[in-house]
């Protein structure tokens, strides 16, 4: 298979990258969302979107605060509810609803569950977190950003 070199998006469009990184900075420093929850949502959204770079990066970030056994089960979190708090489960469910919005239409049931688990500002910040990671995935996957993982 021939390797087709892809553009490095943030070098080609540094102002666009700066804008997107500004949203990331807001999420990680300007919200009341726990850091672990942010990385959990970043990972789940990246898994849904199939962005290898982001899955690699956010798995590494999450492993700093969450045991491997738990991180390994993030894709099937709903099957192991005892491993995740009510708030984490609500965040994961909302992340899936918003990421798959063309299928789910962000259902009233999912919104009700998320709005029960999060204060209004936190729910908006969570949704910004999900939207931002979807944007990063839509750059990372098509431009095939590299992973740190080695054979």
Automatic annotation (TrEMBL):
Pfam families cross-referenced by the UniProt entry: CMD
Domain Carboxymuconolactone decarboxylase-like: 15-97
InterPro entries assigned to the protein according to its UniProt record, in alphabetical order: AhpD-like (IPR029032), AhpD_core (IPR004675), CMD-like (IPR003779)
Molecular functions per Gene Ontology: peroxiredoxin activity
Name this protein carries in UniProt: Carboxymuconolactone decarboxylase-like domain-containing protein
